[in-house]
């Protein structure tokens, strides 16, 4: 019995090794949810592009209906993938604003010409600072912002067809 | 004819130039003390797109944006811990490589000392025998 007792640390070490070996090669892509949900949108004001008016905090907090704010970029492939879904949301009566991150006017115009333009307003965030302000960890991300400018919901990654009703429901909830 | 071809060629878009995303410059702060403080913090903040890399040595555009944010806040006189708190407010404890010292992390911080104590007790019993 006593001899077995001294085997315990060795067994513990073996268990640790097994745990580590089992986790080798497993991707550890944590999903970083924004901690800004429930908080007001930080102050910002961006110039417009592609014929659309710019976007600022004042526009979002003006007391209108809840809106979707889509963080996108012309250099982002999933943004092109989600373009039909954004259009579907706009067709269902959602107001969709865009924030173009680290982009140029020419590239945004080209992107919208190719994939359609569902946006009411577009803000040019040349430095990509708005992503930090919103707590965004990548592009694209879509936020539901209520009439008082409070962030109510965050959708990470591209919007797929089954996400459209979820986002419409979140817009309804934010009213 | 040659002139016409040249003119038409000029009308073609230059793909390499047009497709490049816009990057902001990574300019060190003028004050070396502030720059050192900023860099020390950058080594402890996690890059969001290239996870498990610090923003100090990441090439990701968002890491660069985070470096600009850190430098601006440090040069505006903010304490590095205040800047860290600003990032934690947005992304949670996850964004910082240094675990916070709170009651729910007390075991984590105390563990090395507990193991040292355990080892000491075992050793003492061995010697006394």
Beta-strand residue fraction of chain B: under 5%
What is the CATH class name of the largest domain in chain B?
Answer: Mainly Alpha
The tally of structural domains of chain A comes to 1
Major sheet: arrangement of strands of chain A? 5-4-3-6-7
Helix content of chain A: 25-40%
> What number is the mean pLDDT of chain B?
81
CATH top level assignment of chain A: Alpha Beta
Q: What percent of residues of chain A are in strands?
A: 15-25%
Structural class call of chain B reads: mainly alpha
Task: Provide the gyration radius of chain B in Å.
Answer: 25 Å
User: Cα-atom Rg of chain A, whole angstroms?
Assistant: 22 Å
Structure description:
The complex is a heterodimer of chains A (175) and B (129). Chain A is α/β, with parallel strands linked by helices and 175 residues long. Chain A has a single domain, classed as Glutaredoxin (3-Layer(aba) Sandwich). Chain A is 39% helix and 18% strand. Chain A is built from six helices and seven strands, in the order αββαβαβαβαββα. Chain A has helices at residues 2-23, 57-60, 77-91, 105-115, 129-134, 164-173; strands spanning 45-46, 55-56, 67-72, 96-101, 122-125, 141-145, 151-156. In chain A, the strands form two sheets. In chain A, strands 5-4-3-6-7 form a five-stranded mixed beta sheet. A two-stranded antiparallel ribbon of chain A has the order 1-2. Chain A is elongated and about 80 Å long. Chain A starts with a helix and ends with a helix. The model of chain A has no long low-confidence stretch (mean pLDDT 88). By secondary structure, chain B is mainly α. Chain B has two domains: 25-98, Helicase, Ruva Protein, domain 3; 103-129. Chain B contains six helices and no strands. The longest helix of chain B has 23 residues, at 106-128. The radius of gyration of chain B is 25 Å and the shape is elongated. The N and C termini of chain B lie far apart (104 Å). The A-B interface holds A 28-30, 32-36, 73, 75, 102-104, 106-107, 110, 126-129, 131-135, 137-138 and B 18-19, 21-24, 48-49, 51-52, 61-62, 65-66, 68-69, 87-92, 94-95.
């Amino acid at each position: 019995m006593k001899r077995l007792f001294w085997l315990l640390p060795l067994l513990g070490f073996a268990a640790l090794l097994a745990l580590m070996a089992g986790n080798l090669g497993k991707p550890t892509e944590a999903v970083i949810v924004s901690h800004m949900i429930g908080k007001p949108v930080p102050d910002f004001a961006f110039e417009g592009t592609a014929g659309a008016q710019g976007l600022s905090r004042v526009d979002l907090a003006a007391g209108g209906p809840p809106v979707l704010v889509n963080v996108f970029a012309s250099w982002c492939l999933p943004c092109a993938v989600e373009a039909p879904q954004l259009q579907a949301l706009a067709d269902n009566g959602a107001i969709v604003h865009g924030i173009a991150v680290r982009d140029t006017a020419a590239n945004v115009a080209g992107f919208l010409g190719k994939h359609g333009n569902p946006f009411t307003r577009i803000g040019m965030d040349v430095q990509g600072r708005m992503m930090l302000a919103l707590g965004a960890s990548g592009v694209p991300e879509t936020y539901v912002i209520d009439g008082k400018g409070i962030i109510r919901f965050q959708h990470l990654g591209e919007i797929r067809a089954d996400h459209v009703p979820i986002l419409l429901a979140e817009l309804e909830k934010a009213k | 004819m040659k002139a016409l071809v040249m003119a038409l060629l000029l009308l073609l878009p230059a793909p390499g130039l047009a497709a490049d995303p816009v990057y902001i410059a990574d300019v060190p702060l003028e004050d070396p003390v502030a720059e050192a403080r900023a860099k020390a913090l950058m080594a402890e903040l996690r890059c969001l797109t290239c996870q498990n890399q610090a923003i100090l040595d990441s090439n990701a555009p968002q890491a660069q944006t985070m470096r600009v944010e850190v430098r601006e806040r440090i040069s505006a006189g903010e304490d590095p811990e205040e800047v860290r708190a600003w990032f934690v407010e947005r992304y949670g404890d996850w964004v910082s490589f240094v675990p916070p010292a709170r009651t729910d992390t007390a075991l984590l911080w105390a563990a090395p000392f507990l193991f040292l104590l355990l080892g000491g007790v075992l050793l003492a019993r061995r010697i006394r025998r």
